[in-house]
Write a structure and sequence with these properties.
10 strands, alpha/beta
Length: 336
């Protein structure tokens, strides 16, 4: 497609809240045919990215398009026809919803690209936002999209999920380009939960990698992990088609096999002897699989048969002295 400052017939703005790795990558991809406003926490960060046309902290070595305008969040008005893409850690979603209200925003298009749930209630990001802002048009973006690959010009396909079919068609027309394609789903909650869950299995792959294991064990972890992924997702009411679609199995496999996966890196550092805090610091970015592990702990009271996920949760949160034995004993105990 030819580069354009605006997609034909679309008159609203595209605003991305969150200038981390994923938010910056989305800005880069979507700027191929749109002007994109990338919002940061403060003015200093915005000025630095604008000056260098590079996000040296989160996407070093990648030059950003001049179609990307970086600015402090809420420095311009959000109108009802604007597409606001959320790419921040899930723990900040509630405060962001309050920021919308404080800034007089009640009606716009919100496309969530973040992963995670509200751990005290198991509410998804969509449920949290829509409970605070009932007038917004909400959609979710998820799927096998490793940001570094996209930033390097490699193609991907993601899922746009919404109950509003007209909204899905509009988002596809405005956002899709030669690098990023979409398929549709109406299972909004399922696609959100799938994006949140897969990080746990990627942590397990990272642990196996850090222990020096190779593809024999990776295959077992992904097979058993997907089975447990299905168990949890079914318990939470997710459709089987979502579990085995690209928002479920596709994203899980991609996150497991990619060495750019934050969750996999985190697991590898744990296996190499780093504490949870030091491993998180080494990754340097949010690791949503760790947050989701806290949520899975809450499901233990329902006696779900998820031995591998329970093992990973123990390794992440408890002082497991022999990670190798803990992992292999768990894998060898699983059958059928």
């Amino acid at each position: 497609m030819a580069n354009k400052s605006k997609s034909k017939n679309y008159t609203g703005k595209i605003i991305i809240i969150g200038s981390g790795n994923w938010g910056t990558t989305l800005a880069l991809i979507l700027s191929k045919k749109n002007t994109v406003y990338l919002w940061t926490i403060n003015e200093k960060e915005a000025e630095e990215i604008n000056k260098n046309h590079e996000n040296k902290l989160f996407l070093p070595g990648v030059k950003l398009s001049k179609n990307i305008k970086v600015e402090k969040k809420f420095s311009r008005k959000i109108d009802k026809d604007d597409i606001v893409i959320i790419a921040i850690p899930s723990r900040k979603i509630l405060s962001l919803s309050d920021d919308f209200i404080k800034n007089g925003v009640s009606d716009c298009i919100i496309l969530n690209a973040s992963k995670g749930v509200k751990h005290s209630t198991l509410m998804t990001i969509g449920e949290t936002i829509c409970s605070k802002l009932p007038k917004v048009k909400f959609a979710n973006l998820s799927g096998p999209t490793i940001s570094r690959e996209l930033a390097e010009g490699l193609p991907a396909k993601a899922v746009l999920a919404s109950q509003d079919v007209t909204l899905l068609l509009m988002l596809q027309k405005v956002l899709e380009n030669d690098l990023l394609k979409f398929e549709f789903s109406r299972d909004v909650k399922g696609t959100e939960l799938a994006a949140s869950m897969k990080g746990l299995i990627a942590i397990a792959i990272g642990i196996a990698d850090g222990l020096g294991f190779k593809t024999n064990i990776y295959g077992l972890i992904m097979t058993y992990g997907l089975r447990e992924f299905e168990t949890v997702m079914k318990f939470l009411g997710v459709q089987t088609s979502t579990v085995y679609g690209i928002a479920g199995m596709g994203d899980l496999i991609t996150t497991c096999i990619s060495e750019n996966s934050r969750n996999r890196k985190f697991g590898k550092y744990l296996a190499q002897g780093y504490s949870r805090e030091k491993a998180l610091k080494k990754v340097g970015m949010e690791v949503e699989g760790v947050s989701m592990a806290k949520t899975i702990q809450k499901l233990a009271i329902f006696n779900l048969l998820i031995p591998l996920i329970s093992c990973i949760t123990r390794i992440v949160f408890e002082d497991v002295k022999d990670i190798r034995t803990e992992l292999m004993d768990t894998i060898n105990s699983i059958s059928g």
